[in-house]
Structure formats: structure tokens, C-alpha cells
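Quick one, C-alpha cells below. Sequence please?
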């Protein structure tokens, strides 16, 4: 896959993710507050990659509704039902949505008209409960690839294990 010159190569990405995930682990050491964790993760990820233009969490507050959590970037939609958009699809299907072209995704919610591509990863506990989804939007087309998916899924799995049982509703 080719990317615009502004986007890091796969090797750079992997190295950057390794460093960011290690930093997040260190920052969250001993932290038990889920909101503090989400805020820290959003901040660290957002500032590590030039193609991250909106980075944040939507919390699963019921079996069919996501509500905005900590994020970086312009304001996001406040509430997203599971039936709507890329975030809703990730929550409903409980699997990552990698969307190279948001215009080609039926029902995509255009919170920002500049968004061209995105990735949304569910945060699931080992018991399979959905805590939240991690949503990253880019103004670059096809900004995210399998490397992003692999590392973000690793991160979200860690968060799901770590914050299982946390009161989120
Ligand atoms: N792009 C998302 C909506 C969330 S905001 O853009 C921050 C979606 O379609 O689910």
C-alpha cells in the first residue's frame, strides 16, 4: 500500500507504537481510574502520530448507546447509538472497523467534514463486556493500516483486562 509522504513508513509506525505503548504502560502504572486512563491514552496517541487528527473514546453507557469520553481534537459528536456510524458498527460487531474511505462507509457520521479515513477499536473485557471504543480519525485518505490495527488492538486488549469491572455506566 502506498501512503502520502507525510505518513510514516510501516517500520517507523511499529517503532513509534512500541514507544507509545511502553510510555502509556509506565504512565498508567498503578492507576485505577478509567477516565484518567482514557484521557492519558488519547493524549499520548494523538501527539505521537502526524496522521491522527481526532483521537478519543466513546463509552458504552448502555447496550445500545455510546457517549463521548476523553478525546483530543475538535469537538466530537456527543452521543452515538450502536446503530450509527463507524463507532456504532465497532460497538455492535465488537470488532475493529478499519475504514480507508469514510465516504464509502454507509452511515458514517461526519462530525468533521475533513475526516477522510478512520479506525475504531472496541475495548472489551476478558468476559466480553464492551467498555468503550477507541476512535481515531484522519484527514488523510487511507491513513491507517494493519500495523495501526495490530497495536491499537493490543492496547485496547490491555485496557479491557486492566479496567474490567470498572463502573462505566
Ligand atoms: N466518525 C465517527 C464519529 C465520531 S467523530 O467523528 C469524532 C463515526 O462515524 O462513528
Amino acid at each position: 500500500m502506498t501512503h502520502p509522504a507525510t505518513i510514516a513508513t510501516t517500520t517507523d509506525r511499529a517503532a513509534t507504537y512500541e514507544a507509545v505503548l511502553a510510555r502509556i504502560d509506565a504512565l498508567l502504572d498503578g492507576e485505577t481510574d478509567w477516565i484518567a486512563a482514557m484521557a492519558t491514552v488519547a493524549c499520548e496517541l494523538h501527539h505521537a502520530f502526524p496522521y491522527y487528527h481526532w483521537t478519543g473514546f466513546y463509552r458504552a453507557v448502555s447496550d445500545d448507546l455510546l457517549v463521548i469520553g476523553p478525546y483530543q481534537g475538535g469537538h466530537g459528536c456527543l452521543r452515538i447509538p450502536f446503530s450509527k456510524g463507524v463507532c456504532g458498527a465497532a460497538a455492535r460487531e465488537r470488532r475493529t472497523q478499519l475504514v480507508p474511505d469514510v465516504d464509502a462507509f454507509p452511515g458514517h457520521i461526519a462530525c468533521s467534514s475533513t475526516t477522510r479515513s478512520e479506525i475504531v477499536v472496541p475495548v472489551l473485557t476478558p468476559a466480553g463486556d464492551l467498555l468503550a471504543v477507541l476512535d481515531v480519525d484522519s484527514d488523510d485518505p487511507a491513513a491507517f493500516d494493519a500495523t495501526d490495527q495490530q497495536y491499537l488492538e493490543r492496547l485496547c486488549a490491555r485496557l479491557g483486562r486492566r479496567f474490567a469491572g470498572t463502573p462505566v455506566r
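Residues 54, 76-77, 80, 85-87, 108-109, 111-112, 115, 118, 135, 137 surround methionine sulfoxide (CB under 6 Å). The chain has a mean pLDDT of 93.
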